[in-house]
Here is the input.
Amino acid sequence: MTCISFSLKRQNMLKTIIRLFFISAIFFSVNLIFSQEFNYWANQVGAQSSMLGGAVTAGGNDNSAIYYNPGALGFNNNTSLSLSSDSYYVSWLNIENGAGDNMDLVSNEVNVFPQIISFNQKVPKLPITLTLAGINHDNSFTNMSYRNEMEADVLKKLPGKELYIGTIQYYSRIRENWVGFGYGRKFNQYLSFGFSTFITVRAMEYRYSKTADVYRFISDSNDISLAANTAFSDYVDYRNIGMIFMVGASYQREKIKFGINVTLPRINLRFIGRSNLRREFEHYVPSVDSVVSKFSIWQQSVKSTFKSPLSIDFGVSANVSLNTTLYAKVSWFAKVGSYPMLDPDNSESLISYNINKLDPEFNSIYLANRSLINAAIAFKTRVSEEVQLLGSLRTDFNYFDRSAFDLNDDFIYGITYWDIYHIAGGLVWTKEKFELSLGTSYSFGRDNSLPQVVNLSDPTSENNLFGVPKYNSTARFNQVSLFLGFTYFFNRSLSKEDIFN
Here is the structure.
């Protein structure tokens, strides 16, 4: 009778944990952080792993191994529930000359977002560990605008200067959440293999508009009249659902560990994801040649594609002293050639005046990823019986392949083309039943060779009342984040091995 009662209590506990897991996974979907649109390592998973820069492919035996290397799950001997988050962050983005000469685009943000919730179950009497996880994998938010009003000779066929008013509004929000399952099996004392599978849900809302109004001055009065107008707008409501598979192996000795993790290219579940696209352009010059040009394209409920590359992670960690462990990780990402993110269909409507030929690539967003290598180094050292100090440095190179596109003409959904570098550190307080992690990171990026998002300072009638974008923009990105993580252990023996894993 006692055994039956214990078994029922354990089943009820597991049901409660699973409910909490899915409730939290839903909560994850409504939070976002400012990051970058084209960077693989902008966000890390788990508070400790974030402080270690993700360099845990070899030596990370906590619940985040489901993401970094499921092969290490076999060495996780504790049943636990883990909650981690970037509790607070502040970010600054300034693009000098982004809207024209001496016209800067600025986007600042303060927000909160959770990283991961996971439940780890060590199967009794078997060398097997199972993990469930909900991951807030990728979040990006950029919002900036500018308005320029000046007197300039824009329309050469009219005498004197005109009043010019140009505006730009840019809004981009990207969210990608993963929900997955991991399995790890320990084959002997030193070697473990594992795999993970995730359902990915990617949502993107993109709005870009620019307008230019030219007014002529009426002689002998303070009145003005519209001489020319241009309005251009893009709107994308993008949804994509896919699957990601990972396979990994971990070899762990007392003082040194090795790990390898392979992430396979994303499988798109195209029968589920649906997206909408609207692009509109209108050009009106009534006072010169009575020129009117207008067209619009609508794509409604079309299939979507989002490709992520084959990637291979190599990791090593070594106990260099009784209290200190060093970590290193190198990741290779394969190239992804240019592809349309939306599939045009027959539902599009097209209205065109004074346009003889419309570019067939106008009705889809395009993306291409270059091949790259990222690296991270980290350390963990024990400063007391219960407290450890962690620190790391990692690269985060931009994957967007600029060579595949003309940034001034092709339809690309982002503008963040720079590399980022991350410095992180913090403390972990370890007790028998829980671990509390607290840390911070500083991220920064610079780029001195960007094209202007728009040129509102040198408008010409030949360029539809805008200036030709120059390559004189300079981006400055800075972000400070605070990590907070909590892990509760349902059964744990607090050994030295547990502390350093």
About this structure: The chain has a mean pLDDT of 84.
